Amino acid sequence: MENTPNYNLKKPKPTDKINIQDINENMDIIDAEINKKAEQIDIDSLAGVGRTAETVKKNAEDIENLSEGMTELTASLYQNTKEIEELDKVTQNIGIRTETVESQIIDLNTKTEKILGVKQYGAKGDGITDDTDAIQNLLDTLENGESIYFPKGIYLVRGLTIQDVEKFRMFGDGWGSQLKLMDGSDSNVLNIINSPRFILENISINGNRDNQTNPHGGVYIERSEFSIISKAEICFCKNYGLRLTGVTNETWEGTDEINIDNCYIHQNDGSGLEINDTHDHSVSACNIEFNEGHGIHLTDCSCLNILDSIIVSNDKIGIHAQNSSRLNINANQVCLNGENGIKCIGGKQYNITNNVFHSNGRLDNGYFESGILVAYTSKVIVSGNQSVDIDLDSKTQTYGLETYSVSELIIIGNDFTPNLITPTMIDADTNYIAYGNNGLEDKNSITDKINELESRLNTLEEINK
Questions:
Q1: CATH number of the domain that 365 lies in?
Q2: 316/152 Cα distance (integer angstroms)
Q3: What is the pLDDT confidence band of residue 113, given thresholds at 50, 70 and 90?
Q4: Residues 345 and 446 in one domain
Q5: Does residue 462 lie in a domain region?
Q6: What tens digit of pLDDT does each residue of 410-428 get?
Q7: Under a CB-based contact definition with an 8 Å cutoff, are residues 260 and 286 in contact?
Q8: Is the pLDDT of residue 465 over 90?
Q9: d(Cα 401, Cα 385) in Å, to the nearest integer?
Q10: Residue 48 has what pLDDT?
Q11: Could you tell me if 276 and 336 lie in one domain?
């Protein structure tokens, strides 16, 4: 800020911020000086030195006009100052927002810096190129916690393996991102071994079964517990679609606690889902259908939930459980499978509740096939199910419920009518309680006990008469 030499007016530099108070003070000084000059002017004397009254009058008018002009200038400067202040505020906001965006970009980079896109490492995804080496080289150098991203495309591979990596994530852009086994390959599409806490999601696995000689599967998982498989498609494999296998050593069994959610497993030559010698899994909201083996095949498993899934049109059994225990099978649609809807053999503690089993046994392989078959087991609850054959012209489901040598069986509130032969077939070696079922008389229920006690009481009264 500078000052003028005569009247000490404040004179801002181009880079100085304009202050309206400084302008007001300048105008006050100018106004005072004009008044002083006006008082000193003697019109007659001015005329005597060659100036006329008219000239003086003209000067006075010029001074008045100057004053009005200065007033307008002051107003204009004031408006400009307000606009500059508003511009400063906007600039400050832009600076703040810029810093925020920059911090968000830094944060986003931090979050995504471990995401490795396969195309950046040489994969083409064009459905023609063999992408095996490019992707496998990336998987071989994968570190704990890193993610592998597959943009949309068809990635031809001879088989891939992820081993000894924790907390990795493999994902794509939905089922448009497809891993497809090349013709004549000698491996599963994807093997995950000793790699706990992984996530596999939003990707398609295609076994290309029509062009394979050896019976390999889709996704094989071994010793990789606490993991998630979500929104994946697994299809067209020469063997199973998805297999979870536990390997026992001296202290633990691996591949426990895997959640399989919203997956579509279909049209595989073997079973859709195989779970062998593992525990504590959850299968929910899945479609498992048109597989040439079982829909779900469980062997030596425990503590599994199969919930809210559609298991239909598989050539063998919808859900086949062998020597397993503590299974909760609830709210599923199990229909149109080639053999039984569900078959539980051996083991114990099966809860089969609130499911729909209908029109199973459709392949007519010469055996009696039921909606629910339970045999050589104990502590079973069958409750709230509808197990019927709704095809009135050509029924294939022989019984709604079939049992052999089952102890502690509770049958409550089911609908077993109609079926091909009879609603139920319960052998003499089955010890059960039944109450409130359509197609099965009550037995050993509380009502039966009350009726039995009343009958005994009546007998005693007759004796005492």
A1: 2.160.20.10
A2: 34
A3: very low
A4: yes
A5: no
A6: 999 999 988 888 899 999 9
A7: yes
A8: no
A9: 10
A10: 46
A11: yes
Whether residues 68 and 185 share a domain: the answer is: no
Rounded CA-CA distance 454/461 in Å is 10
Q: Is residue 155 within 8 Å of 125, Cβ to Cβ?
A: yes
pLDDT(367) > 80: no
* Rounded distance between C-alpha atoms, residue 126 and residue 153, angstroms: 6
Instruction: State the DSSP code for 182.
Output: P
Q: How far apart are CA 44 and CA 48, in angstroms?
A: 6
Q: Which residues contact 376 (CB under 8 A, 6 or more apart)?
A: 345, 346, 404, 405, 406
Tally of domains within the chain: 2
Look at 101 and 273; give whichever has higher pLDDT: 273
CB neighbours of residue 286 within 10 Å: 26
For residues 176-181, average pLDDT: 97
Per the CB < 8 A criterion, the answer to whether 434 and 411 are in contact is yes
Is 410 in contact with 439 (CB distance < 8 Å)?
no
Give the Cα-Cα-Cα angle 337, 342, 344 (nearest 5 degrees): 145
pLDDT in tens, 260-309: 999 999 999 999 999 999 899 999 999 999 999 999 999 999 999 999 99
DSSP 279: B
Give the per-residue pLDDT at 35. Answer: 66
What is the reported pLDDT for 265? 99
Residues with Cβ within 8 Å of residue 162, at least 6 apart in sequence: 139, 142, 168, 170, 190, 191, 192, 193, 195, 198
* Residues ≥6 apart with Cβ < 8 Å to 415: 385, 386, 387, 388, 400, 437, 438, 439
- More confident position, 16 or 456: 456
Contacts of 1 (CB under 8 A, 6+ apart): 10, 11, 12, 13, 16, 22
Residues 101 and 123 in one domain: no
Lowest mean pLDDT among 46-55, 175-184, 197-206: 46-55
| Domain end call among 76, 95, 111 | 111
Among 61, 91, 111, the domain-final residue is 111
Query: Do 164 and 186 share a domain, yes or no?
Result: yes
Strands 319-322 and 296-299: parallel
Task: Look at residue 397 and tell me if it is in a domain.
Answer: yes
Whether 465 is in a domain gets the answer no
Structural domain of 273: 118-457
Q: Are residues 171 and 105 in the same domain?
A: no
- 38 and 149 in a single domain? The answer is no
Tokens encoding 450: 């009350």
pLDDT for 46 equals 45
Lowest mean pLDDT, pick from 63-77, 188-202, 341-355, 446-460: 63-77
Instruction: Indicate if 152 and 278 belong to the same structural domain.
Output: yes
